[in-house]
Design goal:
The chain is 22% helix and 37% strand. It is an alpha+beta fold. The protein has one domain. The longest helix is centred in the middle third of the chain and has 18 residues. It comes from Methylobacterium tardum.
Length: 82
């Protein structure tokens, strides 16, 4: 079974040194899509109203084969300070 590496980027690169065995590319892609919201929850944002986390998938040769990004953006709509 092929091994895929899931590097996390949230402003800093957190490389996956061990990798995970997945049946194929589609299984690796599905793993990213299912886990990305959880990964975003581990990140402590510098600006809590704007946050993005990406997962870059590499194959066994180190070739980048897939990337997914989850972005959270919020803004205050009224200008009055509370």
């Amino acid at each position: 079974m092929p091994r895929f590496y899931f590097d996390i980027h949230d402003g800093e690169l957190l490389p996956d040194e061990e990798g995970t065995e997945c049946a194929d590319f589609e299984a690796a892609r599905e793993k990213v899509l299912a886990s990305l919201p959880d990964v975003a929850g581990w990140i402590t944002p510098v600006d809590s109203d704007n946050q993005a986390v990406s997962v870059l998938v590499r194959d066994e040769t180190g070739r980048e084969i897939y990337s997914a990004t989850l972005t959270f953006a919020a803004s205050r709509l009224d200008q009055a300070a509370s």
